[in-house]
Fold this protein.
Amino acid sequence: MAKPKLKEHLINRDWCKGCGICVELCPKNVLELDNENKAVAARPVDCICCKMCELRCPDLAIEVITEDDK
Amino acid sequence: MAIKDYIRERFFPHLWCSGCGHGMVLNALLRAIEALDIHKSDIVMVSGIGCSSRISGYVDFHTMHTIHGRALAFATGVKMSRPELNLIVPMGDGDALAIGGNHFIHTARRNIDMTAIIMNNRIYGMTGGQYSPLSGFGTMATTAPYSNIDHDFDVVELAKAAGASFVARSTTYHVQQLTNILKAAILHKGFSAVEVLSQCPEYFGRKNKMGTPADMLEYYKENTTTIGSKKKQENPDLLERGIFVQNDIPEYCSEYDKIIEQAKKTSGGKTK
Amino acid sequence: MINNIKFIQGNEACVEGALYAGLDFFAGYPITPSTEIAEMMSIRLPQIGGKFLQMEDEIASMCAIIGASLTGHKVLTATSGPGFSLKQEALGYAIMAEIPCVIVNVQRGGPSTGNPTHVSQGDVNQSRWGTHGDHAIIVLTASNHQDVFAITVEAFNMAETYRTPVILLFDEVVGHMRERLVIPEKGDIPLVQRLKTAIKRDVDYHPYLPREDGRLPMSDFGEDHRYNVTGLFHDMWGFPTDNPQVVHGLLRHLVDKINNNVHQIARLKEYFLEDATTILISYGSSARSALHLGSALHLAKERRTRGERLGLIELQTLWPFPYGIIRQKCENARFIVVVEMNMGQMLHEIKLAVNNPEKVFLANRIDGELITPDDIKKIIRLIQGKGV
């Protein structure tokens, strides 16, 4: 199976509480907290689509959309 | 269905603090249910009181937010009267094992088909950080300002001793394992007890200098290991994760159906 | 026909009444003097495909019946003194969440473990105010097995009508005494079934929006509508809120739905009231002694033209207390004597109800023995200044 290719990080800024779990646990250091303390994908090109940020988000605020996703 | 189809989106963002593990348990649970493709109307979630118990307000199932410690007793009434429904009972550690300890061991002993999720954050969060039966000796809490002298107990050992036919443990760090365990627990016919170590950065974490939410997750990674691993042999202090018990023993509702058959036979169809 | 006549305990009469009413789920815990109810349920319920559960404690029993009621079943638990104390928090939950259920308390002596195998009527006020917070409650009782049967059926009817817990407050003498019961034919006593919503699946359903008549159509758990049930103050969908307007409205609704229907809920029996100068007011087993005395004196009066003009009001609805009815019926009495086996729990309400509270007296026994007609007679003589 080919490696999944990133389309986008869908981040719900209303739901994100800025806990930093996605930022600190991302294996490729893709995410950052912005000056409003919300998660943003600062380096999307580095994303390997492991989706751990999505699975670990306590606020259900991140979705990693890949080309394979409908 | 996407996991968002299983929640009541209008109540989000949820009330849990930033970095709270309970949102991660919700996340994993929704993925487990989505993977099992269970219809929302076939699930009843019964919760008690506390931070963890607020989970029932966020899911689009039949939901019952009850009183402190008694969720399993309410759930027993629902399950006995409608055995075809899937019962999920999320509880906090104080809810399940202090005020609700009696119901926990007896529901396990009865082996009635439901999934109990013990969201263990080692603290009473809703009331502001008092020590729970799982805080552990030497921890700090608002009611243990000089250090806690209460010993904790092992939820897995307790559930095993009480006769639970499915016993497992995972953490919010190990979300994929957690999702798989929850799937197995829901599918298991009998009483399933799943302990989830779930971080409380706001109270337990702060009082005990555990660092950021991510630091607390790293702590779970460093201090746990899979059941029977080599790491466990080398370091017996590590807490094991995985499925400890998965037994096929008579389930309560099914056994009661046999009682009904027997009673109908002996009464010869007469009801008076 | 002969099958319908039984010589049984009051606790068994209660079981017969509950089954007649359509009960099919019971959860309980053994406790004297109510245990026979659980024992009989364990035999009878599976015979009709119903469910009996012996739970780990009184609290769990109360919780289990609430859960079962939500799936559409008629439910009951039975207990006595200490067990009734343990059930109070969950009872409040059923009041707040408006879940129909019936709770039997076969009273024994208290406080605490008290006098388990002896009679008392000491839980009258606990049944009214046992759970915390403002609320209204329906509490019914009876003094003989035919009435125990009928009032048990009534309890289920009222639980469904008002979507509320109803308490059956019996006592040890009524519970354990054996006497005749004739079980009515099906249909002789009308039954109220659960009012279910007609709202279709996927159409917005408001589980906590009362109709114009105050009733709330329900949707069973597991059926078409997924909603939330909570012990917190909640909106019409059942979701928690602390909006002052909603909190105020819900509490008013919970109290008004019962207190505005006092006349529909009030059940009492009257004996020899027409020309009574002294009125006895009693309930439960003490009303049997009062009736015995009243009947004896009534017969004597007919024989001798002269004699005590003694009437009796037997209360079957204890709460909501029918103040207006009692005031009207006691208007012409010179003496009102409240016969009960406690320190005067109904006495207080009756003093509040009547125009002249100074003419209300207590005839009681609190030693675990049934108050006798002779006891009452002596106390009446004292009250009337005649000496014993």
Notes: Chain B has a mean pLDDT of 97. Chain B has one domain: 3-266. The domain at 3-266 of chain B is CATH 3.40.50.970 (Rossmann fold).
